[in-house]
Amino acid sequence: MSNSALGAFMEEELVSQPDVWLQAIAQAGADAAKAEAAGEPRLPADGERVAVVGCGTSWFMAQSYATAREAAGKGVTDAFAASEAFLNHNSAGRGYDAVIAITRSGTTTEVIELLQALRGTVRTVALIGDMDSPVATLADAVVGLPYADEKSVVQTRFATTALVYLLSSLGIDLSDAVEQARPAVTEAVPQELLDAEQFTFLGTGWTVGLAHEAGLKMREAVQGWTESYPAMEYRHGPISIAAPGRVTWLFGEQPEGLDANMEATGALYINTGKHPLAELARVHRVTLERARVRGLNPDLPRNLTRSVILDTTA
Asked: Structural domains in the chain?
């Protein structure tokens, strides 16, 4: 297989993100209008206490949405890895009014078991890509994003589209993200990024989840040494690995003085000031090209499958 053929699905999917995001923005608006007319909101109402769950990439999108919802004054919102959510049988005791599950495949074991355990105790909402999946019948309400579903094992557009839908539901304008992502998903990748030994991604507020997701993409597709942190935590130790030939990439607002600290390390510091979602889309492109030059196929990464389905009968 030629290098250009490696990650063919991933390339098609990551390039489509700006247009797919527009679909999600329109859907969020249409769903909100329908819910208002029917008096039955699909997503939790303002002021409700919400838990958001997912696995892997979806967990990081849950983190971003949870922080953004609280920052928007919409109510207490917590994010959990589905396997570690403190929800089973006592969600009422924790005071949650609703649980949102994000899952591309709708077949992930931990999410299915959690939704089964919560039936009849708290309202659940699922954002899914595969409308024929088991989760579609387990949640009390479903937000279907089939146009964002993917063939590549390494997620790009479903994750960002789910987050775009959720952020749009908060009234956040993402037009800049769409327009800035258009060149980001097709532009050539500089040689210094292809050759870099190590990447660290940083975020603040809702973009911490994006930083964690960027790190996961690089580990999955490139099998590379990649770390991620809240930006203010970076100087509490992790900055010690910054060095020439390595990259530190910031999403969102820069903590005061970080640029000067980075200059002293000799590492490449990326802080474009562009919309964080557009920057994540750019990371997707960088990740794909780094995988290709190493002869790796991110559509079929090592040790991974599209969905983690566990044998719970043993």
From this structure: 3-172 (3.40.50.10490), 176-293 (3.40.50.10490)
